[in-house]
Amino acid sequence: MPARWWPPATTSSLGRLSVRGNFYQEADNPNNAPNLNLNDTLRAELQRAGNVAFAVAPGAEAVPYTRTQVLYRRDTANGSFRRAVGADTLGQVFSVRFTDLGQGNGDYRLSTTDVTSNGRVYEYVGPGLGRYQPVRRVPTPLLKQMLSGGVSYRLDSSTTVFFDAARSRLDRNRFSSESAQDGAMRMGYVVRDRALPAALAGGVLRNYRLRSTLDYEYTARHFAPIDRYRDIEFDRNWSAVSSAQGTAAGPASRSDNIFNFSVGLAKDVNNGVNYRLSRRFRSGEVSGLQHWVDAAQKVGNLEMRGSLFVLNSDAGRFHSNWARGEATGRFVSGKIVPGYTYRFDKNRVSSATTDTIRSANYFDEHNVFIQSRDSARTQYRLDYSYRRDQTPNAEQNALRRRGTAQTWQGTLASRLGKTQDLRLLATYRDLDSLGLARNRTVLGQVFYNASLLQNQIRSELSYSVATGRELKRDFSFLPVPAVGQGTHYYGGDADGDGQQDKDEFFEAQTPDAQYRTYIKVYLPTADYLIAFTNRLSYRLTTAAPRGWREAGGWRAAASRFATLTSITVDRRTTDTSLISRLSPFSYDKEDEQLLAFNQPGAQHALLQPLEPHFRGRAHRAANPAEKPARAGLRPAQPEHPESAAAPHAGHVVHRPAHRHARHPRIQQHLPPHPQLPPAGLCCAARNQLPAHALAAPHGHLPAHLQAKHAGHQRRRAQPRHLRRAWA
Questions:
Q1: Which of 250, 337, 505, 655 is 20 to 30 A from 396, alpha carbon to alpha carbon?
Q2: What does residue 708 show for φ and ψ, rounded to 5 degrees?
Q3: From its phi and psi, is residue 395 left (phi > 0), alpha (psi between -120 and 50) or beta?
Q4: Cβ–Cβ contacts within 10 Å for residue 283, how many?
Q5: Count of CB atoms situated within 10 Å of the CB of 553
Q6: CA distance linking residue 328 with residue 304, whole number of Å
Q7: Which of 220-224, 226-230, 482-486 has the highest mean pLDDT?
Q8: Which pairing describes strands 361-372 and 518-543: parallel, antiparallel, or unpaired?
């Protein structure tokens, strides 16, 4: 695990001036890398690799022959590896690790004929014709450091100028002496909710406030942030590849220059307008201009809101003309609120010298909806949307229709009385893609929560169905270190080929250790299947009535216990029948179309700790009335000036307002205090005392109150059933 160290960020203020600073470091131990055994040869390779995130090492290792592994022999003609079978096993064999480098970057591929072997088999296809290579990528130990600081000065109540700077160090490989160090800076001003001049503050601009920002940012070519600090869509909005200097080796580093300016007027959430301009220059990658406009206006019962984004940029050898926007209007008058939304995203990326089009996103969408008012007790919304997508044609010189999609969606959220609530979501999508089969997708969710008997019984039910893609998985069987720790066993060489095949392993049906020598390991692939998922989850929580905590006897003991019962049924299948797609209850584990079935259940008994009558006997505070009053505790206020010099002056006695706090067995643990009422004083007697009598000894009580207090104490000494008779 990497070692991280950073002191707390330091911020100091002196009047209108504010200064801040921070330092961060994260480092891996090069001599204790997890899952990596370093020898002298590998250490030398890492030292020569330079400042890289991964070092490439040979993936072949000579080993003795064993039929429990897929082994290879080396072809002396071209140095390639081929699986060792038959007589090949008598010579030198290798255990080879292959790495996926992407199509066209390797010489090997997964075998399409030998698929039953216990392990993946790779075959040589020629230089540059495959995607796998007999090498392994060795992760290198990392070092990250950053020192940052800044200063800001408040010109007035709404305007602030600032300057921030940072310097980073990134060593991707601590075995190498190479390092990447550089800096970044940002400066500008911010204006927030500034009142308009008197000449503009009247008429349609009444109650509007001015907002404006301006900043310039410079990032040096080797500056490496600790984490991503920009929006995830930042580079996409410039039609550029990711420009962040991360831990992995990426594109060539270049300096970045960004200028931003914005100005706007805002009244409230329904009335305002804002404009933002951004200019960016990154040599060889991005040189462009962005315009952003956001506006909202409410006229009577009509609410209108819109946004527009326009980009004109040169991204390397391509030029991007991009327009993206959304406009929404809804009429808020009665219980039903109708509305309409139009969205479009038209990014046309073309070559700067030819008519080649390389557009990744080009669509427009119409959406009609009705919904409840925002303040309604039952919230609902019904939507219908129609979307058209376009894509470059085969010649890449014009756009053509890619597909159309129609989506119906409904949502409902309501409280059924005071103790129950229900939420529903249903979505149906019909996608007609050019050249592909029609795709219909269903998604549904139901959530129902209920509480009974003053929240002593809580029930939570959720059910969902969905259609999606499931990653196809391969598997192999690996031997376990100790006999008896596995789940499968090898049944023998059934076909007599001298190799272990997948169909020669069987699940152990007995606890006998000799039949539990292998485990089944799933391996990811690059293929996907259309899968139908349904999931049912139910949880029930029960607890005793809260009043039992004060009842005593077995009720008080039972009140400390609560039970939690839960069950979940998760099922994924490729069966297209409606019943199989919707029903989570299927116990046919041998169904060939069943991808996964999981049904965990649990029942817990929880023991709650005792609730203390008071949290402590005394609490010293600079302000005696600060926090105890929030918890129902009253500070000890001195009645006379001389009492301030008492031994317990300045203390706050924790005395809860609960009636049991007056019990003698509780108050005898409290420290003596001049302002405490007499020990064992009943609530009725105490409430009739004047303020100066609270500090009086017990013997100085008036006669009629002493008699009332004595009667109260006699009733407390009786059993509870007799005490009720006295009352």
A1: 250
A2: -65, -40
A3: alpha
A4: 11
A5: 9
A6: 6
A7: 220-224
A8: unpaired
Which of 563, 569, 570 minimizes the C-alpha distance to 603?
563
List 260's β-bridge partners, or say none: 215, 278
- Spatial separation of the C-alpha atoms in residues 563 and 602, rounded to whole Å: 11
pLDDT at 494: 80
Beta carbons of 670 and 652 less than 8 angstroms apart: no
- 3-class SS letters over 113-174: CCCCECCCCEEECCCCCECEECEEEEECCCEEEEEEEEEEEECCCCEEEEEEEEEEEEECCC
**Contact yes or no for 50/176 (Cβ under 8 A):** yes
Give the count of beta carbons closer than 10 Å to the beta carbon of residue 581. Answer: 19
Cα–Cα dist 208/445, whole Å: 43
Token pair for 311: 């980009």
Which of these, 346, 339, 444, 435, lies nearest to 383 by C-alpha position? Answer: 339
Q: 308-332, pLDDT tens digit by residue?
A: 999 999 887 888 899 999 999 999 9
Whether the CB-CB separation of 504 and 494 falls below 8 Å is answered with: yes
Q: Which whole-number Å values give the CA distances from 328 to 112, 294, 528, in the listed order?
A: 53, 12, 37
Torsion angle of C-alpha atoms 77, 78, 82, 84, degrees rounded to 10: 40
- The answer for residues whose C-beta is within 8 angstroms of residue 421's C-beta and 6 or more apart is 413, 414, 415, 448, 449
pLDDT band at 699; cut points 50, 70, 90: very low
Distance CA(363)–CA(355), nearest Å, equals 20
Between 409 and 721, the higher pLDDT residue: 409
Neighbouring C-beta atoms of residue 172, cutoff 10 Å:
26
- In terms of DSSP bridges, do strands 159-171 and 518-543 run parallel, antiparallel, or are they unpaired? unpaired
The stretch 214-225 carries a mean pLDDT of 93
As a whole number of Å, the end-to-end CA separation of the chain is 68
Question: What's the pLDDT tens digit per position in 634-664?
Answer: 333 443 433 333 333 333 333 334 434 434 3
Both structure tokens of 569: 């049924």
Both structure tokens of 644: 């301030």
How far apart, in whole angstroms, are the C-alpha atoms of residue 94 and residue 72? 5
Q: How far is CA 202 from CA 158, 209, 270, 273, in A?
A: 20, 12, 19, 17
The rounded distance, in Å, linking the Cα atoms of 87 and 573 is: 44
Contact call for residues 621 and 652 (beta carbons, < 8 A): yes
Half-sphere exposure of 725 (CA within 13 A, CB side): 6
Q: What is the pLDDT of residues 343-358, one digit of tens each?
A: 999 998 888 777 778 7
- Residue 557 three-state SS: helix
Fill in the amino acid letter for 97: R
**Helices and strands (H, E) in the chain, number of each type:** 7, 37
pTM, entire model: 0.67
Q: How far apart are CA 551 and CA 560, in angstroms?
A: 12
Determine the 3-state secondary structure of 717 from DSSP.
helix
CA distance 129 to 133: 11
Q: In the 8-state DSSP scheme, what is residue 613? A: S
